[in-house]
Amino acid sequence: MATINLVIMIIYHIFSAFVAFVLIWSIIKTKNVQEAILYCIILIPFTLRVFHIK
Amino acid sequence: MSEKSLKTVKIIAMCITLIILIIAGRAFYIHRYFKGAVVLSSGVTEVKKLGDYSSSLKGTTNDCNIYILDSGQPGGTLLVIGGTHPEEPGATLAAHLLVENAQVEKGRLIVAIYANRSASTVSRPGDAYPQFFHIPTDWGEKKFRMGDRWANPLDSWPDPEVYVNYPSKQMLAYMDIRNLNRTWPGKSDGSLVERTCDAFIQLIKQEEVGLFIDLHEAELEYPVISTIVANQNAQEIAAMASMMLTAMEFKRPMGMEFSPPSLHGLSHREVGDHTDALSLLFEAPEPFLDRVRGITDEHLLLTGKDPFVMKAGEYGLLYEKIDENGWPIDVRIGRHISSILQVTETFSEMYPEQVVAIKNVPRYAEVIENGTGHYLHNPEEALVDRVVYE
Lengths: 54, 390
Description:
Strand content of chain A: under 5%
Number of strands of chain A: 0
Shape of chain B: globular
CATH architecture of chain B: 3-Layer(aba) Sandwich
Number of domains of chain B: 1
Radius of gyration of chain A: 14 Å
Largest sheet of chain A: none
CATH class of chain B: Alpha Beta
Radius of gyration of chain B: 22 Å
Number of domains of chain A: 1
Strand content of chain B: 15-25%
CATH topology of chain B: Aminopeptidase
Distance between the termini of chain A: 23 Å
Oligomer: heterodimer
């Protein structure tokens, strides 16, 4: 069980890192100010997860 | 908006995000890796790790310290665990006071301050829990980490859709796979918290523990409060102790309840059923945990005073009384400490071949008169080899 959980945890972190990357990419590409600010806010929890802090 | 203005706003937004990330990340990191000092009393003869009893737990966050106070004289063995739910600081501090003060004259006392150490590394920001709390002592304030009811998801994740307790197969809420008082008797190849319970069961068997006590605090809206919950193997001890405590020491009565035979995963049920130890669980009132509480802060945690909980009491919605004096942490700790001492005395009288004699621990009235901090020692004045960190 511990091994399966570890594998899922690693996949989850890779997934979080991918979402964080997509958000940063979207911030750079968007022409809409509100969207850029919204992506910045969403980025916070994903970044904390990627660094295994929260 | 022009291209240049858009770029400027984006840069400002990213900078603010980065600042928030650093502030939040730093706060979470400091909380998770905080080390609290424990000054060992002269009665502590050995500090082991829980992982010494089960290799599957070695090196994990829940490989907590196990304090052994061995008198060297024949007698029984008492195991006290605090920190099953680290959001109940009265339980953790009562165990802490034992380690810093107790001396054992007969038999052995074994203490775990943070039984579910992982749960002490995470708080509940969504419920406005403070990250730390401070106890005034004779030498300054001592800082303690506030925890949660469940182990940190950073240490145990993902949760199942439904948690099925082993071996009873009772179905419980998904997050209870991270709740140390739902995963007994544990599983050597299970989740982190199941492995923790399994390690405690191994400890109880290897150290031949005769009496097991699990310390808790509960909201006043919860019916199991101000009570000793007893496995059927310890019901005489619990009944006698509750009568003695109510008659001789406490202002508010101490009750006694039977552990329901079909409610699995809880320590009072499973430890008694799966080992030879007599199993008890103590509950003290903690208004901080009530759902109807008002401002949730360190003041409420320490004083137990809340006008909303009081109002609920006026309408008869609570299972324990509360007035303008609240339920201060000294009262809660004093109740736990006196209950431990009384139960141990009763156990020693009923099982003379398993006597455990503990001294130098303050009782209820002394804790209230002098304050909990009076019994916490300054780590800077202690010998280096008598200070350990949790």
